[in-house]
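Module 6 notes. Inverse folding takes a fixed backbone as the condition and produces residue identities as the prediction. Think of it as a translation problem where the source language is geometry and the target language is the twenty amino acids. Below is one complete input and output pair. Work through it position by position during the lab.
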């Protein structure tokens, strides 16, 4: 109940680019999880977030990451305004965002143009 004293506002996001990641090669910024996690985690272990084995995961190149760098299969990679990349698990992404289809201009025949 922390918002009782303030005015609650609603927001809608500007259109942005996102890629759903499933495999290495789906996005150039995602590389195999080793060697960063390799010394501590076996790729045979299961991920606490998605329960899939770590061998199916990738990691975001550190210079592009805002926070976590672990990329679970089906996560969405969102290009931020500063060219960094944020990772959204699919369950959150699909609850927060809708696809954006740019409006198309009507096709006006040449004879009607002035
Ligand atoms: Zn995972």
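Target side of the pair, the amino acids:
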């Amino acid at each position: 109940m922390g918002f009782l004293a303030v005015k609650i506002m609603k927001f809608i996001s500007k259109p942005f680019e996102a890629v759903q990641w499933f495999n290495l090669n789906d996005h150039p910024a995602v590389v195999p999880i080793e060697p960063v996690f390799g010394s501590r985690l076996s790729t045979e272990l299961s991920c606490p977030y998605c329960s899939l084995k770590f061998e199916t995961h990738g990691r975001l190149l550190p210079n592009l990451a805002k926070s976590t760098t672990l990329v679970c299969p089906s996560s969405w990679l969102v290009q931020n305004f500063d060219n960094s990349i944020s990772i959204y698990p699919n369950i959150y992404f699909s609850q927060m965002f809708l696809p954006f289809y740019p409006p198309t201009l009507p096709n006006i025949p040449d004879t009607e143009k002035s």
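Reference fact for the lab report: The helical segments are 90-96.
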